[in-house]
Amino acid sequence: MNKALNWGILSTGTIAHKFAKTIKAMGEEAVLYAASSRDLKKAEDFAEEYGIVKAYGSYEEMLSDENVEAVYVATPHSHHFDHMMLCLEHGKHVLCEKSFTVNRQQAEVIFKTAKEKNLFVMEGFWTKFLPIYREVEKVLADGVLGDIRLVTAQYGYCTGTERGIRKFDPQLAGGTLLDIGVYAVGFASMILGYQPKAIETQVRFNDMGTDEFSSILLQYENGAIAQLTTAIQTTMPVLGCIYGSKGYMQINDFKSPSKFTVILNNGTEYDVKMDLEINGFEYEIREAQNCIMNNQLESSIQTPEQSIAVMDIMDQVRRKWGLVYPMEK
User: Fold this and answer.
1) What is the Cα–Cα distance from 304 to 80, expressed in whole angstroms?
2) Which of 147, 219, 277, 309 gets the highest tally of CB atoms within 10 A of its CB?
């Protein structure tokens, strides 16, 4: 295998552009070798914009290229399962954008298939790979905040009509939960663990029958609680907080922070700052590459069990809402 992996991008939508910009900025660390779209012209335009060697008018064509070693799946999460299975069937390692799949069952099948085929698969929950979260973990491990009692996370944004329709479309497994609610669930899981003992939730549905706004309460065996609020078409600050017996930590823009603030009960207050090298995607790309090049089938930072557990939490939330997507029926 080469020093740097040859990456292919499956789909050329908004998130694919961020991935492409990141790899180009990483220099010789990684090679953006191929781009694919269901529309050849879109693939060619994308390839020209980022100096990509190959452009393909179908996903199958790109995956049949033996020079493609790893694939970034950038399609809507409603299609992640089918497209990851397609990658695995063609012998490609996979980094898949979050939400990983539509439900837990799909996630379990993906990881089982990858293991059988001796291929690497990882969810691109990019927040978790940011180095600043290693500092957060250190503060918590050192007991600076004491016993953790409460974690809160909120995130909401507004978008235009056309994008809003796409975000809420049940045919695309639309709604706030799988779009940005996964950030809040993932954040709480990073801090309190992936196995809450109880889940409560309230939801407001939109005209398309998917979730527009919700509040989720996770309770853990040790008594700690996570309170999570996310919304599309309601703007709210992106804020995560961790409250302990000795003080609390405030993490502005918790999905991609450059600093966090520790405020202790004794009056001590300090910041920990750490700027991103590029835009934050570089860390998950490095992790995927390092695992693949060292013949590791899974990441120790974002494990298959953790991705499955987050999908399971969101499954339980949707069951309480009675929200079932068309592809699940």
Assistant:
1) 15
2) 309
Residues in Cβ contact with 9 at an 8 Å cutoff, skipping those fewer than 6 apart: 16, 19, 20, 32, 34, 35, 36, 46, 52, 71, 72, 74
Side chain identity at residue 165, one-letter code: I
Q: What is the pTM of this model?
A: 0.96
Tokens (6 digits) for 226: 């996570």
Domain boundaries, the chain: 6-125, 131-275
Give the integer Cα–Cα distance in Å for 151 and 94: 31
**Superfamily of structural domain 131-275:** Dihydrodipicolinate Reductase; domain 2 (3.30.360.10)
Domain 6-125: give its CATH superfamily: NAD(P)-binding Rossmann-like Domain (3.40.50.720)
Q: Which residues are CB-neighbours of 161 under 8 A, at least 6 positions away? A: none
* Long-range pairs for 131-136: beta carbons < 8 A, 24 or more residues apart: 131/274, 131/283, 132/257, 132/258, 132/259, 132/260, 132/272, 132/274, 133/190, 135/260, 135/272, 135/274, 136/242, 136/249, 136/251, 136/260
123-168: pLDDT as tens digits:
999 999 999 999 999 999 999 999 999 999 999 999 998 888 999 9
Read off the amino acid at residue 196. P
